[in-house]
Design a protein that fits this description.
The complex is a heterodimer of chains A (185) and B (85). Chain A is mainly α. Chain A contains eight helices and no strands. In chain A, α1 packs parallel to α3 and α5 packs across α8. The radius of gyration of chain A is 21 Å and the shape is elongated. Chain B has 85 residues and is an all-alpha fold. The N and C termini of chain B lie far apart (67 Å). The mean pLDDT of chain B is 90. The chains are: A mainly alpha (185), B mainly alpha (85). At the A-B interface, α1, α2, α4, α5 and α6 of A face α1, α3 and α4 of B.
């Protein structure tokens, strides 16, 4: 099936496409470039396995997705060790466990909200403030479409670790958006 | 946790509910608590809003392009392997 793939043109045809996809997932230009190059090299070495039932582009993306998962798996243990599960949100509640401050309603249409350019910038900044391990959980969930169970396997964490991480991330994002956007509205 | 739970206990469960399914008893406690607590109702709606924003953000692809230098480097790596073959 070698005749239907053309490795000489891969960089020109798919380089930027694969790079953009990777960059959003690893958030590091150098790492993204390395993963794309590794993908091309791995594909070239495995070109005999290429089957015509998928397109060249789909095949390259499939290899890249596995490379990204391997990258996360490799980083998993070192960056998720000793996740502190103690409640760091204690300061929000009084001694009876009741909210200290009032909480406003934000509306019900996040899709419409992100259409506002200024809001989108603030959202990007607020997500950028999240610790890397929290960002990784949402990348795996929303971009790689992994289940909670699979995320735990890739990052080598327990399900209770995962819930603590997602809760903190949602809470931190909520606080950042409250301070930088909703409070002034 | 008592029959209705405290706001602090329930707040964590709102987030957990977005990741996994909760037991019918826990869901009932949350519903009871929400009926009585406007702050938790608002907090839950903010958490769901924030979670949807995360989904939208991570599902939007980057349109950043590969630099010329990186393209040249990759092309050379591929050409070298092709030549060796």
């Amino acid at each position: 099936m070698d005749s239907v793939i053309n490795p000489s043109h891969w960089v020109k045809l798919y380089g930027s496409m694969l790079y953009g996809y990777t960059l959003k997932r690893v958030n590091d230009r150098e790492v993204a470039e390395d993963l794309v190059q590794d993908t091309f090299v791995a594909a070239l070495r495995a070109k005999k396995n290429f089957e015509e039932r998928s397109s060249e582009r789909t095949w390259l993306f499939a290899i890249l997705k596995n490379k990204i998962i391997d990258y996360y798996r490799g980083k998993g243990r070192s960056q998720t060790e000793n996740i502190d599960e103690s409640d760091t949100l204690d300061y929000l509640f009084n001694e009876k466990g009741v909210w200290k401050d009032s909480i406003d309603l934000w509306g019900s249409n996040p899709d419409k909200q992100v259409e506002e350019k200024e809001f989108s910038k603030i959202l990007k900044r607020c997500i950028g403030f999240l610790p890397e391990v929290q960002q990784r959980v949402f990348t795996l969930r929303d971009m790689q479409s992994l289940s909670g169970e699979d995320i735990c396997k890739v990052l080598n964490i327990s399900s209770s670790n995962l819930w603590v991480l997602t809760h903190r991330a949602r809470h931190q994002l909520r606080s950042c958006l409250t301070q930088n956007w909703f409070r002034g509205k | 946790m008592g029959l209705m739970g405290t706001c602090k206990e329930i707040a964590f469960l709102f987030s957990k509910e977005l990741d996994t399914s909760l037991s019918p008893i826990t869901k009932m406690k949350m519903r009871l608590h929400l009926m009585m607590c406007k702050k938790c109702t608002a907090y839950k709606s903010q958490l769901v809003f924030a979670d949807t924003l995360l989904k939208i953000y991570y599902k939007t692809e980057s349109d950043e392009e590969l630099s010329f230098d990186a393209q040249s480097r990759m092309q050379k790596a591929l050409d070298d392997i092709i030549e060796q073959e």
